[in-house]
Design the sequence.
């Protein structure tokens, strides 16, 4: 059965970074969907119905009345959204689907490896876990070129204060020696991933971002650590 396509209005358009924008898409009256944190929606502009793009939800299933998606300026759709989308614009939305879902559970540990806008679904993971006061541990390992590329920096830092089971770890890959950044430098390494693993049997790995980053994470987790495939979920793009 075909899923119902709905028209939604941009209730809020927030420029997170110069090249990254969050759209809050208001649900139509009477719409109350059952969906899961970690899923994605597909959107398109009314004037270009043949050009559709899927975006992970950066809001969680506890956020009601709207969907949020967070987009970088990339490709035709991403460029148009970041440069032109504004409050009052309308999009057609194909409802959420997908299996990139957090395995919440007592004693579970979710290690989430992200690059660029690949961090967006992990904001949703942490939002839900924090609001529900779950004891699931979540560690987000975020690779960016420099500190100016840290999406949701303030929100993640606030969630870290609210949730003792959440750690937000950032590494910067393209800094000069003179840069004042005092955090970690360089790419995510196998050793760094392994440092954050305590009980491997109860650890679930997620990787979201560019192909190269996700394939690296798969190599580390599936081959380096010998983790079963069912304990790893990935989403990647070119």
Sequence:
């Amino acid at each position: 059965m075909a899923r119902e396509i709905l028209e939604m209005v941009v209730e809020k358009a927030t420029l997170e970074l110069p090249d990254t924008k969050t759209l809050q898409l208001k649900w139509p009256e009477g719409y109350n969907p059952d969906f899961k944190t970690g899923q994605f929606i597909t959107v398109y502009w009314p004037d270009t119905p043949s050009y559709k793009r899927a975006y992970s939800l950066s809001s969680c299933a506890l956020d009601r009345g709207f969907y949020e998606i967070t987009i970088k300026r990339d490709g035709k759709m991403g460029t148009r959204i970041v440069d032109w989308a504004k409050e009052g614009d309308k999009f057609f939305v194909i409802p959420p689907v997908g299996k990139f879902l957090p395995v919440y559970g007592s004693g579970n540990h979710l290690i989430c490896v992200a690059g660029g806008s690949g961090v967006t679904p992990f904001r949703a993971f942490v939002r839900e876990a924090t609001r529900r006061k779950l004891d699931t541990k979540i560690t987000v390992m975020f690779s960016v070129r420099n500190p100016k590329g840290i999406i949701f920096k303030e929100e993640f830092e606030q969630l870290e204060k609210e949730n003792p089971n959440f750690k937000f770890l950032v590494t910067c890959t393209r800094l000069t020696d003179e840069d004042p950044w005092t955090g970690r430098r360089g790419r995510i390494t196998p050793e760094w991933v392994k440092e954050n693993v305590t009980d491997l049997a109860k650890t679930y790995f997620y990787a979201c971002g560019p192909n190269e980053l996700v394939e690296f994470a798969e190599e580390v987790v599936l081959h380096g650590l010998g983790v079963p495939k069912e304990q790893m979920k990935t989403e990647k793009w070119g």
About this structure: The helical segments are 75-84, 120-131, 153-162, 190-195, 211-224. The longest strand covers residues 6-17. The domain at 6-97 is CATH 2.40.30.10 (Elongation Factor Tu (Ef-tu); domain 3).
